[in-house]
Amino acid sequence: MVKSIAPDPEAHTPPNGLLFGIGAYFLWGLLPLYFKLLPTVGPVEIVASRILFSLILMIAILAATGALGDFGRTLRDRRTMIAMTGSALLIAINWLVYIWAVANDHIVAASLGYFLNPLVNVLLGVLVLKEKLRPVQIAAILVAAIGVAVMAVSAINTLWISITLAVSFALYGLIRKTAAVGPRQGLAAETLILTPIAAAYAIWLVSQGQAAFGKDVATSILLALSGIVTSVPLLLFATAARRMPLSMLGLLQYLAPTIQFLIGVLLFDETLSRGQMISFVLIWAGLILFTVDLLRSTRAARLALA
Fold this sequence. Notes:
Layout: H1 18-29, H2 31-35, H3 43-64, H4 68-76, H5 78-103, H6 107-127, H7 135-154, H8 159-178, H9 183-207, H10 217-243, H11 246-252, H12 255-267, H13 274-305
Helix pairs in contact: 1-10, 1-12, 3-5, 3-9, 3-10, 4-9, 5-8, 5-9, 6-8, 6-11, 6-12, 7-13, 8-10, 9-10
């Protein structure tokens, strides 16, 4: 059985990851707006740029905070690096599918994937980390699961997008929660692992005269800033994942797809079928039920300690 580890030793505050989680998911919710600014850049080049510029940023952060020694020890830890290799591959798949979905006007499908993700998080929390659910929470999950089933029927052509995003990020979160590595060292290790592939692709693009980076100032700046856009929410998420129950962290994720959904429908005029609307209603009903039960439980626990 995989066990949850202690809160991140880098942290000097109590292990409350709520604000970190909210910050991560809010920023992720706005990502479609950023990638829509790069309509002429292919998804693979965007992912390669995210990897390369994220590595540069993370090395700078580690150097500025005097953590390069810890990073070196992380790289020499075989067990940790195996875990980071798994998480690196998962996040690369997630990025590629997500950017492809945004570029091809499937923002709603992507948002549905991230609505599905919390259910996968809760399932992993229960099965792998042995987190306990109360009857009301189980009922809430069943209601949301029905919504997901409706979604599957009503959006079968883009279902692969939703499932890939949900499963890849849920497994990524599980690895980052259980791996014995801090948020900064972990993200730096992930980007370093992916760098040879990203660099090789970037070099190939340049050799073929197909690289978007360097062709105009605006595009080059946006690609360079992708390191910040990538690293900041991932650092916030990794910190939150180590400080919160996985099932509770899953609840916060509804913030990101809600923002993405609104962006897709209101700003980019993506169509929303009747089945998708029913799916959203059921998923939100499950979310509200789960949240109310969680708040009542938390309040009762605090009163008991008072």
